[in-house]
Design a protein that fits this description.
This protein is mainly β. The chain has a four-stranded antiparallel beta sheet with strand order 5-4-7-8, with no helix packed on it. The protein has a two-stranded antiparallel ribbon with strand order 1-2. The protein has a two-stranded antiparallel sheet with strand order 3-6. A hairpin with a 2-residue loop joins strand 1 and strand 2. The chain is elongated.
Length: 84
């Protein structure tokens, strides 16, 4: 299965179950200040073959995105500085 620039392989004996199911997970990224309060204007990306936009934080949370259950790198840019 390929979805949102990522892929997932699955092996299944279809003689016992002919329906192969792939399920996504909802990823959410938060930006908090030093006191733990949510803050805005952070730009979030995730890496899947290249850096892909996830969104800009609003009320401290970037837009959630359904992704395949893989391991991803995430990058936040805030005040012109990036951190992974």
């Amino acid at each position: 299965m390929t979805y949102a620039y990522a892929s997932k392989d699955k092996q299944q004996d279809i003689s016992t179950n002919a329906t192969v199911v792939f399920q996504t997970v909802k990823a959410a990224v938060q930006l908090q200040n030093s006191q733990g309060n949510f803050i805005d204007q952070g730009t979030v990306q995730y890496y899947s073959g290249a850096w892909r936009d996830l969104g800009i934080t609003t009320n401290g949370i970037a837009r959630t995105k359904e992704l395949l259950p893989n391991s991803y790198s995430f990058r936040m840019t805030y005040a012109y500085v990036s951190a992974r």
